Automatic annotation (TrEMBL), chains A, B:
GO terms for molecular function: orotidine-5'-phosphate decarboxylase activity. Pathway: Pyrimidine metabolism; UMP biosynthesis via de novo pathway; UMP from orotate: step 2/2. The active site is at 93 (proton donor). Belongs to the OMP decarboxylase family. Type 2 subfamily. PANTHER family: OROTIDINE 5'-PHOSPHATE DECARBOXYLASE. Residues 242-269 form a coiled coil. SMART domains: OMPdecase. Residues 16-252 form the Orotidine 5'-phosphate decarboxylase domain. This is Orotidine 5'-phosphate decarboxylase. Keywords: Coiled coil, Decarboxylase, Lyase, Pyrimidine biosynthesis.
Amino acid sequence: MTRQEIFQQIQQKASFLCVGLDTDIQKIPQHLLKAADPIFEFNKQIIDATADVAVAYKPNIAFYESLGAKGWESLHKTLEYIPKNIFTVADAKRGDIGNTSALYARAFFDTMDFNSITVAPYMGVDSVSPFLEFEGKWVILLALTSNQGSQDFQTLTASDGRPYFHHVLEKSQTWGTPDNLMYVVGATRGEKIAEVRSLAPEHFFLVPGVGAQGGSLEDVAKFGMNEQCGLLVNSSRGIIYADSSENFAKTARMEAQKLQEEMKKLLDHYL
Amino acid sequence: MTRQEIFQQIQQKASFLCVGLDTDIQKIPQHLLKAADPIFEFNKQIIDATADVAVAYKPNIAFYESLGAKGWESLHKTLEYIPKNIFTVADAKRGDIGNTSALYARAFFDTMDFNSITVAPYMGVDSVSPFLEFEGKWVILLALTSNQGSQDFQTLTASDGRPYFHHVLEKSQTWGTPDNLMYVVGATRGEKIAEVRSLAPEHFFLVPGVGAQGGSLEDVAKFGMNEQCGLLVNSSRGIIYADSSENFAKTARMEAQKLQEEMKKLLDHYL
């Protein structure tokens, strides 16, 4: 999927919402446990309920992997069920030496047909490049995350006085372009998003941490939006677990729509 | 498995060899493709042929994941087949926010029964700690790798004049101990191994990059060995793909034994 296609979808739906499919067998509504594949059944109903307001779906791979071969099958089915015009993110945070990253790329881009994958930068160029070689596919590189541990290494000051994540942003732009490389940018503080935006003006950011993890959507838009929106804002728990009754899909839709309406206002204001 | 148990095995076998199970359907001997599960059949024969000279097996998870649900099953069967007194490493390089890392820990330590997993440090404490909470299990944290991209960020100089990987070594020792935390340390240069050893005197190192990836076993022992050996040296391709004929297991054994004999000499010399 091209950058232009992502932007078109954002305009059509007046939304930059990514729905995180962190589907946990212990958290889904009881009545679904009777289904042949409860995880897929849950995802299917969430997708049906939100596909007109979401521009991206992001299955968190750990949730599927923790169920072994069965989880892997639920993931495959989920991915096949997502409408082809909606952007898909494998939130896998992979990264290994070249020939191993190439295998992960094959797994997520060929065996499955994800549009993008989140990648960790620590092992450098040959851990990232194999993912960039796939035409029409995207790397979403960890730059600045919003979890507690992000303060341990990401913000460490380098000898040139700049934090480490600046170097990740700068160096990685010699590997990929705004047409095949996005960044994960945490949403806890607006000024941090502005800082990343100044270093990567054209790139799309995948922003977790709005909603349950704190972080204001208004700040994200104010400090992070560029001419093509440049934002995919994720919400997982706030949407998919808003209601644990048989009405879960309806409630999920309401929550997604609330975010979409707020996003519409922000798009109208800033674009 | 405890540190003492690992050391006892090293002494008993006079070996610190880890065999990497980077099992690729495109590289295994043709005649195995007739088997119901060629990947498992290959691993089974490699394990049978090397179990008395190897102290650890390290399946590279990407190779299994790239085959989807079927690969996942081959991995399960392989892990169950490895004798319980041999240390097992899930070479997965995971690392995510706390609740997601907890799920990966569940996948590799509970759903499967790996003794250890390789973890990437970029997201900091809450991405690593969930793995450390499992009694008797190990984190093997990426410190200094030997691939080309290791020069991009790992060796970047911080404001205190020390390279970034020093900070990873130092900070992570406030999270784990030599009894549940090892480090991945690349083997391309002996003096680098000495540098890491000075910062982590008691910890075990998992050393890839001996053999096919270059790096001398003698240097690794000279600069990296501690009182409990403190080394698990991995060889993958040099052993498992030494021979593509029907004799592959026999040749793999010969190659593994060659390394073990060299290791015995080094253990006799340095311990």
